[in-house]
Amino acid sequence: MLTCTVHPLPYHANPAHYFAAIRHAPGAVLLDSGRPAAERGRYDLLSAWPLEQLAVLPNERGEAFLQRLRDNLARLGEAQLPAACELPFAGGLIGYLSYDFGRHLESLPAQARDDLQLPDARFGLYAWALISDHQQGSSQLVFHPSVESAERERLIRLFSQPVGHDSTEFHLNGPMTADLEAADYRQAFERIQHYIQAGDCYQVNFAQRFRAACQGDPWIAYCALRAACPTPFSGFQSLPEHGAVLSLSPERFIKVSQRQVETRPIKGTRPRGRDAREDAANAAELLASSKDRAENLMIVDLLRNDLGRTCRIGSVQVPELFSLESYPNVHHLVSSVTGTLADDRDALDLIAGSFPGGSITGAPKIRAMQIIDELEPTRRALYCGSLLYLDVRGEMDSSIAIRSLLVKDGQVSCWGGGGIVADSDWQAEYQESITKVKVLLDTLQNL
Predict the structure, then answer these.
(1) Cα–Cα distance between 193 and 212 in angstroms, integer?
(2) How far apart are CA 218 and CA 405, in angstroms?
(3) CA dist 434 → 116, 347, 378 (Å)
(4) Helix H segments across 240-289?
């Protein structure tokens, strides 16, 4: 098997230093672990100038699109990294699946309006990447064997010279406003309660959208947001016509490494306190909450079932249950579900059997998605989809695109939501949907 070429560069903890060099290049993309402030992520990964851009067609079946992704990976060709090189990417696919990619995998109603018109999935096929390893304190260019020497030299030169200061800015043309009034939210909440009482479902993740007109460079907005809310599954993906995906997600969807699978669902949230005492009390209350534990366990069971479709029989385990993770704006309750891919399955089979993530739909999943489509007036687009990479070795990592924004057609959209169960209180849930994104909305407002 052919081996990638690796070229060391000076280490920078903040990927903005290197991303500035490719910010305006076609297909510029960054998967960002939120360093140096966020602690859990290890790698940043950025690239541009993809060999192919792949978007799912409006009526294309999910399996057909995933096969197109597979075919493109095969065309790029298998490769390995040099011995003792631990980097996560050897060339391959980087992009997003929107929440609505689920419509290409399952038969769902189409009541919610598709007013943002975002393609349901969009990937680039990349033959190189700049990867920073924060554990080793290294930044390196990784070139797939197919990259010719002239292109390698061009990229080494590009990232070795200082980048001029970008004088662009970003600002809102008005306040971020919710699409739903509190009374509309309450009405939808009561409808969900009716479905739960009738035995249709146990939990439904319900969200509301905030929007404002905006102008300027979305990258400026992303840099301000990552400073205000650093998270280990962040990302920036440029879109055509000056659009972009901006994600500040704390949540992993699925990771595959050497055929070992892990998913880390978040269910259970409390705001950070105004002082250390209140903060500790909020965290303790979350850890002790039987309601939040029950919600979390419900999603763990759902994910065990989803992973079981693609993993070896008997390999699915729950090594971690109800752990506390804290971020600048909220505390979260997090669990871990693991497994081993079956011999005849790959990471894209895992996506087909598990997408969208159960932590942001509800249980049972398909019924919850039907209720979401009925009660949320517009499609979720990027929100609760996934940013991911999948390389030619079969290595994959992916986020759940919560705390995420879409800049498109002169407006910025942001969503906040939460899981509703039988003993939920509408006012508490309404407030939580705002609390989760308040730091993002406030940051944009102050640019």
Answers:
(1) 31
(2) 10
(3) 21, 34, 18
(4) 276-288
Point out the catalytic residue in the list 267, 365, 408, 436: 267
Number of other CB atoms surrounding residue 261 within 10 Å: 24
Q: For 20-28, which contacts have Cβ atoms below 8 Å and span 24 or more sequence positions?
A: 20/163, 20/166, 21/158, 21/159, 21/163, 22/46, 22/47, 22/48, 22/158, 23/166, 23/217, 23/219, 23/238, 25/49, 26/50, 27/53, 27/124, 27/126, 27/238, 28/236, 28/237, 28/238
Average pLDDT, the chain: 96
Q: Known catalytic residue: 78?
A: no
Task: Return the residue matching tokens 């905030």.
Answer: 210
> Catalytic: 251?
yes
Which of the residues 251, 376, 395, 432 is marked catalytic? 251
* C-alpha to C-alpha distance for 11 and 30, rounded to whole angstroms: 16
- Domains plus CATH for the chain? 2-164+173-259+341-446 (3.60.120.10)
- What would the two tokens of residue 342 be? 């079956």
Contact (CB, 8 A) for 357 and 99:
no
pLDDT band at residue 37 under the 50/70/90 scheme: confident
Nearest to 381 by CA among 400, 357, 406: 406
Q: Locate tokens 């705390």: which residue?
A: 403
Cα–Cα distance measured from residue 211 to residue 405, given in angstroms and rounded to the nearest whole number: 10
Cα Rg, the chain, nearest whole Å:
21
Phi/psi-derived region of residue 155, left when phi > 0, alpha when psi is between -120 and 50, beta in every other case: alpha
Cβ proximity of 162 and 212 under 8 Å: no
Alpha helices per DSSP H over 139-262: 149-160, 182-197, 218-228
Is-cis flag, bond preceding 356, omega within 30? yes
In sequence order, what are the beta bridge partners of 94? 124, 389
Q: Considering only CA atoms, which of 269, 318, 274 is closest in space to residue 289?
A: 269
Query: pLDDT band for position 166 (50/70/90)?
Result: confident
Q: What's the one-letter identity of residue 107?
A: S
Q: Across residues 408-437, what is the average pLDDT?
A: 95
* Rounded-to-integer distance, Cα 205 and Cα 189, Å: 10
What is the CB-side half-sphere exposure of residue 312 using CA atoms within 13 A?
12
**Does the CA dihedral 249-255-257-260 come out positive or negative?**
positive
Residue type at 1? Answer: M
* Tokens representing residue 157 in the block: 């030169």
Residue 165 has pLDDT above 80, yes or no: no
